[in-house]
Amino acid sequence: MRISAGLASSPSAPSTSRVTLALLIVAVTILWGANWPAMKLAVAEFEPWTFRVVSVLGAGLTLLILAKLSGEPILLERRLVLPHLAISFFGVTLWHMLTAYGLLWVGGGRAAIIAFTMPIWATLLSILFLRERLTLLVGLALVLGTIGLAVLIGPDLMRIGQEPLGALLILGAAFVWAVQTVATKLYDWRIGTMALSGWQLLAGGVPIFLVWLGLGEWPDPERLTLQGVLALLYVVFVALVFCFTTFLRIVRLLPAIAASLSTLAIPVVGVASSAWLLNEPVGLRELVALLLVLAAIGSVLLPGAIASRRS
How far, in whole angstroms, is CA 270 from its chain's centroid? Predict the structure, then answer.
């Protein structure tokens, strides 16, 4: 059966116009892009495990409360619990710990660039496991996005090579995020998106919490500043409560390839916001990369960009 790429929906994902979808993508692009320097500021004051325990569990609990107050169905069917736990481990536990430690060695802008190679891995996994197929438009989007990232990262390859551990950790995070994106499409969860994202954050946060307890890692009040606390609050309420949930909504509305390609502009915002907030270098290549990835996203949103084929 062929499903049009633009707005493939499920019983649990209501129909959304292309304009609304484009606005959601723009919001996630800007706000998630700014999350990278925010995380860099937060992990400078909070230890990695403390930072993730507070952000992941705080956001998960907030989302479930909001889902309950909004009247969303929030209980998973029993048959979906084990798949949900596996997806949460990849998309939350591994992603958050790999990025938290990777940011200790890699700057926020460069980390965003490496992390958002995710669409490449998601495209390969979608073709293998979801039987989604590339059309000419989405192939063009993938090429434009890859070139855009190459323009952005090219001059920094030598520097990243001098920081192999941090780069490898962030690259691993990109792959597990792709796994989570594709695996989410395998099931009709039959609960609201706020509830689904809340349960993913809580389930994925449990292993982080257990390790945190074992380490006895506590924040040092003398190290904390207003800037660091505000950065942590941004991660909790903007990056996770809003952006994580909105991205899951996009995943549920679009085929996995299209959803993953919609994130291509985020590293450009990450680089620009890191330059502004952290004084990391930015120049003409960031502008060129932005134009390329915006063209890629525009290609994805055109009618008939992607067809999905299932047996």
Answer: 12
